[in-house]
Amino acid sequence: MKKIGFLSFGHWSDASGSQARTAADVLHQSIDLAVAAEELGADGAYFRVHHFARQLGSPFPLLAAIGAKTNSIEIGTGVIDMRYENPLYMAEDAGAADLISDGRLQLGISRGSPEQVIDGYKYFGYVPDDTESDADMARKHTDVFLKVLEGEGFAQPNPQPMFPNPPGLLRVEPHSDGLRERIWWGAGSRATAEWTARQGMNLMSSTLLTEDTGVPFHRLQAEQIQRFRDEWAKHGFDHEPRVSVSRSIFPLLDDMDRAYFGGRGDDRDQVGHIDGGSARFGRSYADEPDRLIEQLRDDEAIAAADTLLLTVPNQLGVDYNAHVIDGILQHVAPGLGWR
After folding, report:
1. Which residue, 126, 147, 278, 294, has fewest beta-carbon neighbours within 10 Å?
2. Could you tell me which residue ranges the Luciferase-like domain spans (predicted)?
3. If we measure between CA atoms, which residue out of 293, 238, 213 comes closest to residue 227?
4. How many C-beta atoms lie closer than 10 Å to residue 12's C-beta?
């Protein structure tokens, strides 16, 4: 059995063929797609976070709205760039969204990806000091965020407060028990996956690794997952970690599917450069269901993960994306033992 959810980048554009032309369109359609996915039996609704872009940039109002309109589906991010975040304010927002959803929040966080603007986090008021990089700053913000989520008091109360305080030091409110164990780190390398395990976070791995050893992407990613689990086992955590991978998978079930994606399944990895270094990008899948099953059976990283996130083309609208999700749940997942 495998948890299967969707991952939306939340693009909008006033282009021909786009059904998401404004930010309002994307926000409303994201809620509708999460509701539809839950009704179809999907396990998760996840959203990418990008600043200074015509994409979703403020996740917590959206996650809270989805939490209020759904009952069982996990809701999360993939990923929030911690260079931009005030960790205490984020802990308040996350606690509220998790309580609204009755403990269904699964927050993916990380250093982030290449930005729309140069050093965009500086416009948000965050600048690395002279001894650290922007990645160091992201991890420092993360450390504070994780400690706050543990729920221990740390702030000295005012002796003459406006409202009565409980005894002792105060914590950020609202606090949601259990959220600390539902934080994921988006790791782009094997070394970062090992660091993630040491922090007691779940592992979120996408279709990009910021290193290239010459082996196929899915094998390199499977090695990353194994290194994460091996490192986790050294630290005596009292819960089992989770691992997700994301893939673009499109079953060709009708003429519309073939028009959109027929002949577009890229059966090879791509090697390129990101942040000044080599990177390997995983393949996408688009084929008839029986052939998809055979192809996906050979993907070692999907086999090693407990959660699969399907990247969806959100500008094609709610109905079409629900059709794609349903096609995988009904025609592909059973053949692989995922359902």
Report:
1. 294
2. 8-249
3. 213
4. 22
Beta strands in the chain (DSSP E): 3-8, 44-47, 74-77, 80-81, 105-110, 183-186, 202-205, 208-209, 243-247, 249-251, 270-274, 277-281, 285-287, 307-312
Q: Which two tokens stand for residue 235?
A: 């630290």
Pick the closest to residue 109 from 144, 152, 133 (CA basis): 144
Per the CB < 8 A criterion, the answer to whether 162 and 174 are in contact is no
- The 8-class DSSP code of residue 159 comes to S
How many whole angstroms separate alpha carbon 158 and alpha carbon 162? 9
**Which amino acid belongs to residue 328?**
I
- What pLDDT score was predicted for residue 272? 67
Which of the residue ranges 80-89, 157-166, 207-216 has the most confident prediction, judged by mean pLDDT?
Answer: 80-89
This prediction has a pTM of 0.95
Domain ranges of the chain: 3-336
Backbone angles phi, psi at 228, to 5 degrees: -60, -50
